[in-house]
Amino acid sequence: MSRKISALALAAGLFAATLAVATQSAQADDYVSHHEFQANCSFAADRPDDPIVFPGLPGASHLHTFLGNNSINANSTNDSLRQGSTNCITPDDKSAYWFPSVLNGDQVVRPTGNQVVYYKSGILKYQDVVPFPPGMRFVVGSPTSTLEQFRDHPGAIEGFECGDSAKNWDIPSWCAPGSQLNVRFQAPSCWNGRDLDSADHKSHMAYPDRATLVCPPSHPVAVPMIEFKMAFPVSGDMSRVRLSSGRGYTWHYDFMNAWDAPTQAALVRHCINGGLQCDPRGYDQYKPHRGAALGPDYRLPR
Length: 302
Known about the structure:
The protein has 302 residues and is α+β, with helices and mostly antiparallel strands. It contains four helices and 19 strands. It starts with a helix and ends in a 30-residue tail after the last helix.
């Protein structure tokens, strides 16, 4: 009798342990810490152009550094971008991304290698985020910003970083030799649902409420929250490092959407709505069983 009881107890214990492991596995899979995918794009050009603010006026802007679409210039339109080529890892992302050039004295400091542009959820209900509509464009931040405006801007999450120095609202005067100057800045992610642009290139977009992470009634459509994470190879004495627009707190950037619509939709659905932390292929290395949104060539399976 005792042997039967021991066997039953052992079986019950094994069942309970198996159930606990399965439950923990399910909980780990259900736990959502991220809802994002990356666009990895590299240097395309340095030009004193801005096809959003100064369309058709080459040389009218301060110097900008462009990533992504290789055809970008002052005359670029969303249609022309779609006809151009891109250096983004995802070949069907022909969007243009640009920002004021970083200068060390008179020398332009170009970002080296692929830079990270995150596409995230800016709202609490990440399942409600929808792709950018074709032709969307906007400007984030301002070249006339003061330090206080940059520091208190709802998109200024990190400011400038280098080595162990973080949360700088201007470019640090010194960075540990061999480190890089990094800056992170988030875009608004609530759209009015009507306009692809506006007179100030900002008013058609808004930030979610900081407390509730809900889009305001005036801008009810949640689109991906873009977050630039740029790295510049400059360190040591930073006293001559500045932006082409002025001090570090004048950091800003521009975006023109030229994604292939089905490709962007697949990444939004799989990664943002699916609560994953995806690379440019739409693959979450921490949840490999969820698969990828795109094929090995970073394109939708045909």
